[in-house]
Task: structure prediction
Amino acid sequence: MSVVVVGSINTDITSYSEVLPRIGETVMGNSYAMELGGKGANQAAAVARLGAKVEFVGRIGADAFGELALGRLAEFGVSTRYSAKDPESATGIAVIGVDAQGQNAITIVPGANLRLGEKELLEALASFERTKVLMLQLEIPVATCVAAARAARERGVIVVLDPAPAPLAPLPDELYSLIDVITPNETEAEVLLGLRPRTLEEARRAAHELVARGVRAAIVTVGERGAYVASSLAGDTEGPVAPFVVRAVSTVAAGDCFNAGLAVALSEGKNLMEAARFASACGALCVTKPGSAASAPKREDVEELLAGT
Ligand code: RIB
Result:
């Protein structure tokens, strides 16, 4: 395996409407879709679509949604042999609204995702032995992320943490020290650091602050202004990553595709700046399509976008 993802899996129910409803309001939608989602599953699907071998370690409920979601992940070519079925919980669900500008609002009901723990990790450790990159997000217990990151670090595996959704409590110091690359967007950086980066200069400062907390490198994204890469490793170059200008249809899973691109590039031995640029192209292409896992870009489209700049 090039990549192991320990993370969430959801069924997403997504409505598309001109505007998102305000509190107390009902709006008419144009269409809807029910599909595979969850940040972990989206990232695994996107890694597979980019052509890398990937293992997904997650937990579904004992219901039809869970079977559908795992089945869809397998159709992407993701291995799910270490994912578990929880007889006592429902599969995670996300209710998503997308407006005509491609902006979204998401409510998740995590269900079985919040019971992903030691049992699955212990069983999956065999796959850690043979992998290059571990991908984590925050839709599963933080304790599971710490345990997975610890196991990865002991085996020399690169750990990428997408701190999404923004955590409700400060992340443990130990987790920072186990992360190779952390990838917050503006909102997540604001929650982690107490200051929202809006410009590249502010992203630079935020990235350095995260490095000071113990991560080896940080990539702070600031939407259409691009991203900033900072690293504590002597061999890494740091600096801004220029954005790709695209027409947004839906921003759902853009962060997931960014992180998938980063993990694939790092697993192939690209340096951090090259990997961040590859990630940025993946995130940009994702927003040109509707859907969650379904919006993951193909490798040839990413290469074409990169070649054209
Ligand atoms: O990042 C997008 C994902 O967030 C959706 O697929 C939804 O399930 C939530 O987890």
The pocket of alpha-D-ribofuranose is lined by residues 8, 10, 12, 37-39, 42, 94, 106, 108, 139, 252-253, 255-256, 292 (CB under 6 Å).
